[in-house]
Amino acid sequence: MPRAFTPKVVTANALIEGDVVYLTADDRWTRDLAQAEIITDEAHAQLRQLMAEAQPDQVVGVYLADVTAGTNGPEPTHFREDFRRSGPSNYRHGKQAELSDV
């Protein structure tokens, strides 16, 4: 029996900066997971992933990540995705420095 499709977002890394980015419903890349398009249909998810992979001048490492719908938009369901959105782990700078101030 096939597994039920779980909601996804299209994610990648920005080509120049390397930041984690997410595809929005209006075909923009955002660094804010809350703005990402939640995809609930498997065929649509595959099309969105193909569209994103066709942008090698903007992003690398495109894939679909599992999410759940939260009160402020998509929330990651796996530790890896939660960790990715907080930035590099080798020292505090950028997003990690901002999060530590909270």
TrEMBL record:
Disordered as annotated region, ranges: 70-102
What InterPro entries has UniProt attached to this entry?
Answer: DUF2849 (IPR021270)
Q: What is this protein called?
A: Sulfite reductase
Tell me what organism the protein belongs to: Roseovarius halotolerans
Q: Recall the taxonomic lineage recorded for the source organism.
A: Bacteria, Pseudomonadati, Pseudomonadota, Alphaproteobacteria, Rhodobacterales
